[in-house]
Amino acid sequence: MASSETATMGSEIRPASGSRRRSSAGRRSIRVTPLGRVMLRVYPECIPVPSVPADACMLKRMKADSLKDVSPAEGQRRVQEGALLVDVREPNEYQEVHAEGALLLPLSEFEARYAELPRDRELVMICRSGARSARAGQYLLDNGYTKVVNLEGGTLAWKEAGLPTEEGGA
């Protein structure tokens, strides 16, 4: 398609006129232009983790609307006051580095094993960047747990804040 053409989903290609027009089907047209150079910034939390099974990243019946995020410093304070730090990454990720004292409960086993977690103790959920732990934390809230927070930024943020970490285990 040339740079001066406009395409509409489900319609023919037309020369671009510089403005957006609606096709006969009522859909908006899209102007296609050459992109040239595209600069991308890669964030560590967006890098795929190939060793994690795809289904481990998706638990059934999950929402992400009412779980509270806490900073690494706040998460550490809560752990020092008695909260349990729960790491939902896979064992190989956990062995590389994890927050000191974190309990491993992989997301791939979470639905089958979440009942092992105490209901009477606050839980601080952690993963690599905060996304998987947010899903696991919301799942706990949806299943009757009331004292659950998510560590914003995950292990990456914990480590960046200079908080204590360990290697090995699992």
What does this structure look like?
- This protein folds into 2 domains: 1-39, no CATH class; 55-166, Rhodanese-like domain (Oxidized Rhodanese, domain 1).
- The strands form 3 sheets. A 5-stranded parallel beta sheet has the order 4-9-8-5-7. It has a 3-stranded antiparallel beta sheet with strand order 2-1-3, with no helix packed on it. A two-stranded antiparallel ribbon has the order 6-10.
- Helix content is 22%, strand content 16%.
- It is globular and about 30 Å long.
- It has helices at residues 72-80, 91-96, 110-113, 131-142, 154-160; strands at residues 5-7, 14-15, 30-31, 68-70, 84-87, 98-99, 103-104, 123-126, 148-151, 165-166.
- It is of the alpha/beta class.
- A hairpin with a 6-residue loop joins strand 1 (5-7) and strand 2.
